[in-house]
Amino acid sequence: MTVTRDIVQGVGAVRDLGVTLDSELSIQNHVSKVARTCFYHIRRLKQVRKLLGPDVAAKLVATLVFSRLDYCNAVLAGLPRSTIAPLQRVQNAAARLVARLRPRDHVTPTLKDRHWLPVEQRIVFKLCLLMHQVHSGRAPSYLQSCVTASADITSRPRLRSASSQRYERQRTCLKFGERSFSCVGPRAWNSLPPSLHELTDTNTFKRNLKTFLFKQAYP
Fold it and tell me: What is the model's pLDDT at position 119?
């Protein structure tokens, strides 16, 4: 009997659940692909923009562009701003499309008028929402196992943190490890005011969280 052996060739990047992962987990391939796809849809919308009102254009941008910017954007947490800059350029281009601005016009007034969070704050929003689900016991078990509440640490029963609603950040030996959910999730959650920690209704939490992040983005 002749035995045949197949040679499996390695690749530089793979796609898993819509996220492109490279061998170094830099996520640059994923960011580039998302940016290209979003700009493609923005160019298509430009062809019919004169036929659309600003509200309709904004809804189409939210459906075709922002849905891609927000998909699995928690994996972008901890990345340098230079890495996620192409996604911010996508949002700026979308704002110019909706407001029919010229290429050199400032987009900040449009972002504020539309109540659009910048890309960096959108990532924090997703992290805090995941942590809210963990805190309220509605998150999957694999997420809940990634973080530890300060109140659950038995070695510090008399400390103030033991009675708080904060979470412990996992210590890592490498800079790369600081991008894990066990680090970026508690960091984002702990940066919120206690009034947000106490909210149990998810819709109310999302509304108040967006207001909080909006004030941070546009002081």
Answer: 97
Q: Label residues 4-21 b or e (16+ Cβ within 10 Å = b).
A: eeeeeeeeeeeeeeebbb
Measured on CA atoms in the order 161, 162, 163, 167, is the torsion positive or negative? positive
* Residue stretches of the chain with pLDDT short of 70: 1-3, 153-163
Rg (CA), the chain: 21
Residues 189 and 209 sit within 8 Å (Cβ to Cβ): no
| Tokens at 200, concatenated | 């149990």
Q: What is the pLDDT of residue 162?
A: 46
Residue 99's nearest CA partner among 38, 44, 55, 47 is 55
Instruction: Give the pLDDT of residue 179.
Output: 87
3-state secondary structure the chain: CCCCCCCCCCCCEEEECCEEEECCCCCHHHHHHHHHHHHHHHHHHHCCHHHCCHHHHHHHHHHHHHHHHHCCHHHHCCCCHHHHHHHHHHHHHHHHHHHCCCCCCCCHHHHHHCCCCCHHHHHHHHHHHHHHHHHCCCCCHHHHCCCEEHHHCCCCCCCHHHHCCCEECCCCCCHHHHHCHHHHHHHHHHCCCHHHHCCCCHHHHHHHHHHHHHHHHCC
Name the residue ranges covered by the structural domains of the chain.
Answer: 13-116, 123-217
Note the maximum CA span of the chain: 74
